[in-house]
Design a protein that fits this description.
globular; single chain; alpha+beta
Length: about 130
């Protein structure tokens, strides 16, 4: 088991790693739409927050030897059901033709007032020895 941490995504604010890699699987912890680093700042609005959260997931995946194209499963928690369409639109842009298994869970208020949080599981290519 290898703990994954990268300065190109928000640093953990608690007792967890940005991701854990076990063999050829990587489990990405819940990512909020914070800008990379230790500051807890995030953009305004669902479009900007969705783009930022997927950029964070992508950076954590890169640090583990994978990419968005290697995602197997994505869980998206949204603060309000009304955000679903906006999140889905950005998700389609970011994922392109790739369609991993996905859940969108309206859950009410999220930490720090974020509009969404995303965790994911990806398969790291065998050619990625890290």
């Amino acid at each position: 088991m290898k703990l994954i941490d990268t300065a190109f995504a928000p640093l953990p604010g608690g007792h967890y790693s940005q991701a854990v890699r076990s063999g050829h699987q990587v489990f990405v912890s819940g990512q909020l739409p914070f800008l990379p680093g230790a500051q807890r700042t995030m953009p305004d609005g669902i479009d900007a927050q969705a783009r930022q959260v997927f950029a964070n997931v992508e950076q954590v995946l890169r640090a583990s030897g994978a990419s968005l194209a290697h995602l197997l499963n994505v869980q998206i928690f949204i603060a309000d059901i009304a955000l679903w369409d906006g999140v889905d639109r950005i998700y389609r842009e970011v994922m392109g033709a790739h369609k991993p298994a996905r859940s969108v869970i309206p859950c009410g208020p999220l930490h720090h007032g974020a509009l969404l949080e995303v965790n994911a599981v990806a398969l790291v290519p065998a050619s990625s020895e890290r």
